[in-house]
Structure to design on (309 residues):
């Protein structure tokens, strides 16, 4: 993997997502410009075709890639097709098809919903775990491809999926479409950021989510930062900055890493009492050199309104 500018000039070093001894091909990628998710086809157990996914980020300061997580999407027993990848904002959908365990004459269209940073399950199904059959289990179906109507996060983003299918006894192929509405929590950016405050992210805010994480990205490297979360807003102006959450409610002092990032794990239990309650979050990073806020030596990230589903 490598990033190029509009003139085709590489602006990043190369990243090897996987260096397996077997062929890996038929990949697709989607992302938001700083974080991407890739799906591809390789070989799994007993050299059976298997689908894989990986999440990676780009550090603009060092112009290097950082691999977040690599996971198998399918065990390989059912011969999956090359996966499609659709970035939604707070989650990502992988589409593929596999043969049915009960009848190998049929192939079924499937999707999986994952957190784009951790490649952990975002939406889930009680019947099928993280795997959602979206078509018919009595036909031959191929990889579903999707397009998200909203790609910046929010509540219930609409996605349109399309895939070809035909009956086993017929060579006539039909195109099937289906609407998908995500249930990946609701986040909305309220602005307020300034200086090198970075970007505030909170993906897959749904119950339950044992790996739910508040994230600060692209802020000042190796600096003290304060995570603020409140049920009420303050709205304090400081130059170009706006401090949105009430700092008197929750304030945790942490430190950014060498890339200016922080990940604060905050598991959401099943039947969480916070479901449907708006929470406001923001990061205040200490900036002793050129602080954007003149009242305090800080830069602020954008504030988020987080609604757990």
């Amino acid at each position: 993997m490598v990033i190029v500018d509009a003139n085709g000039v590489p602006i990043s070093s190369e990243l090897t997502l996987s260096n397996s001894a077997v062929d890996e091909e038929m990949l697709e990628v989607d992302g938001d410009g700083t974080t991407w998710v890739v799906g591809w086809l390789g070989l799994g157990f007993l050299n059976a075709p298997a689908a894989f996914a990986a999440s990676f980020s780009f550090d603009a300061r060092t112009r290097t890639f950082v691999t977040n997580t690599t996971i198998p999407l399918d065990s390989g027993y059912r011969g999956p097709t090359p996966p499609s990848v659709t970035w939604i904002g707070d989650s990502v959908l992988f589409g593929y098809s596999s043969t049915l365990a009960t009848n190998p004459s049929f192939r079924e269209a499937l999707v999986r919903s994952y957190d784009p940073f951790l490649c952990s399950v975002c939406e889930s199904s009680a019947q099928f775990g993280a795997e959602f059959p979206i078509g018919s289990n009595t036909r031959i179906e191929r990889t579903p491809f999707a397009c998200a109507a909203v790609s910046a996060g929010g509540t219930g983003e609409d996605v349109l999926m399309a895939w070809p299918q035909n009956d086993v006894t017929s060579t006539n192929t039909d195109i099937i479409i289906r609407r998908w509405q995500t249930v990946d929590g609701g986040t909305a950016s309220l602005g307020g950021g300034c200086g090198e405050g970075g970007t505030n992210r909170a993906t897959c805010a749904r119950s339950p989510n044992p790996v739910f994480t508040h994230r600060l990205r692209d802020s000042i490297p190796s600096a003290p930062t304060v995570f603020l979360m409140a049920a009420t807003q303050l709205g304090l102006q400081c130059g170009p900055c706006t401090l949105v959450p009430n700092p008197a409610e929750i304030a945790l002092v942490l430190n950014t890493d060498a890339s200016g990032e922080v990940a604060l794990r905050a598991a959401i239990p099943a039947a969480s009492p916070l479901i449907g309650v708006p929470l406001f979050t923001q990061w205040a990073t200490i900036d002793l050199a050129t602080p954007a806020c003149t009242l305090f030596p800080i830069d602020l990230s954008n504030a988020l309104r987080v609604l757990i589903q």
